[in-house]
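Can't paste images in this forum, so I'm doing it all in text. The chain is below; anyone willing to post the predicted structure tokens underneath?
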Amino acid sequence: MAVFVALGAFLMTLAGGWVAQRVTDRRHLVLGFAGGLMLGVVGLDLLPEAMEAAGDPVFGVPAALLLFVGGFLVAHLVEGLLAVRQVAHGASGDRVPQVGLTAAAAMVAHSLMDGIALGAAFQVSGAMGLAVALAVISHDFADGFNTYTLTSLYGNARRKALLMLFAAAVAPVVGAATTLLFTLPEVLLGGYLGFFGGALLYLAAAEILPEAHHTHPARSTLLCTIGGVGFIWLVVGIAE
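Text version of the structure:
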């Protein structure tokens, strides 16, 4: 059942990537919306789940928050090592394709974990499985949208962007299938969500949103960013 439901996530991921590809003439709106989606996923979905699942505090700080900060710093370090020069304060620089591929690979890993979470939920009960399925299928549209946008933003060829999009679409199906063999411990799942959330927030705050709002500081771009956050809020609310 979990694998069958994961096929819905497969289709929604492809749909998100298709939309991102088709609106290239409104690139600043795409980036603004993608940044809002990423901010919403981190603040309203990933971090709350990580806080609930990721074990005991470490020296007075929840483990999920420590990993969240760690993910942010690791993303910053990776970009610093790979990038020739970052865009900052309006100065243009070269974007290294490997940064986009690394970010997209993280999205693929996140989609894989979505599938594992989906399979684990069905192991508990059918009702829980359906609730998690609604959340996974709904926000996988955003995953597909962000995967294609992140890959292409850094100058990767369209073929590579489509390849990463397909990988992100297949990942939930693979993740759900693996739960027929094992179940991921809740503490490890929570730690991963915190770490990935920190990395995703860095990409949204340091790259996606500045790129969108610097080139086209229009009200429509801001509205797209707010709309992206609102969409994730709606998805989370429906799932609950």
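The two ends are 21 Å apart (CA to CA). Helices lie at 2-22, 27-53, 63-82, 97-124, 126-153, 158-178, 186-215, 219-239.
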